[in-house]
Amino acid sequence: MQIKTGFLVVGLLYGSMTSSYAQDDVQASRSAGKLAVDGSIELMSVVRLHQPVLGVALDSAQTRELNSPQGLANRTGIANRYDQLFLVYDADVYLMSDLDGDGYHHALNVYFDVDVSYDNATVYARLYLSHNGGPWRYFYTTDLFEIYADDHEDAYEVATELLEGYVPGYYDILIEVFSLNHADMVASQILDHYYLGRDVPLEDLSRDRNEEYYYEEEYFYSEGGGGSFSLYYLLLILLVVIAARGACSVAPEQ
């Protein structure tokens, strides 16, 4: 009874938590970034050490402006200083971690190479996700990094694990680039089906769990702080009791 009660409590808590996510439309993820050429860092290991970040949506006016034909045209090659022009020269998305094998992944790696017309610049990038053309939701800001003219070795990558609130579907990624020497955004690129030539199917970890694998890791917990009680020992005790009763029933009378 205690074991069943424990699972009931866990189930109620999980249901309440997922319900609150659905009601509040909260999206949570965690990310980490580095220069792509830096082979000393395994990004997904770093990602799991970071605290979750809640996605913040652009308002409806910003989304309409961004998704309009003129807005899309204005997001590339923006500059506000006459002597430098910035461009997201190359970008791609790599999908990871499809635990349940349904084609939707809960982790992704965004790669992008920012070029500047000459000299060098110190930049950072902000990344957003949009589900099926919906509002853009912020999920990560990179550290500052240096770019050098058209050098491809200054390319950057960001690994992200989607935790909650990302329903299964196709997503677009927005990269906004900012420079310390410029007042506003200097370049951007939207990674969508048109740019990539393919869709980006994503879902969060709570929906991507491989249930068979996940529950193999569960233990049977009893309430009261007694720790875990192995099913193996429970069966062993039951067999001992049955054997003892059998021995008593066949014992000769004195």
Can you summarize this structure?
With 254 residues, this protein is α+β, with helices and mostly antiparallel strands.
Structure overview:
The chain has about 250 residues and is α+β, with helices and mostly antiparallel strands. It has 2 domains: about 25-210, Immunoglobulin-like, CATH 2.60.40; about 215-245, no CATH class. The protein is built from 8 helices and 12 strands. The longest helix is centred in the first third of the chain and has 23 residues, at about 1-25. It is elongated, with a radius of gyration of 26 Å.
Q: How many extended strands?
A: 12
The CATH architecture classification of the largest domain is Sandwich
Per CATH, what is the topology of the largest domain?
Immunoglobulin-like
Q: What string gives the helices and strands in order?
A: HEHEEHHEEEEEEEEHEHHH
Stretches with pLDDT under 50, minimum 5 residues: 1-24, 72-80, 212-234
For the biggest sheet, the summary is: 7 strands, antiparallel
* End-to-end C-alpha gap: 41 Å
Based on CA atoms alone, the radius of gyration comes out at 26 Å
CATH superfamily of the largest domain: Immunoglobulins
What is the CATH level 1 assignment of the largest domain?
Answer: Mainly Beta
Structural class: alpha+beta
Residue-averaged pLDDT = 75
Q: Tally the helices: what do you get?
A: 8
* Helix-residue proportion: 25-40%
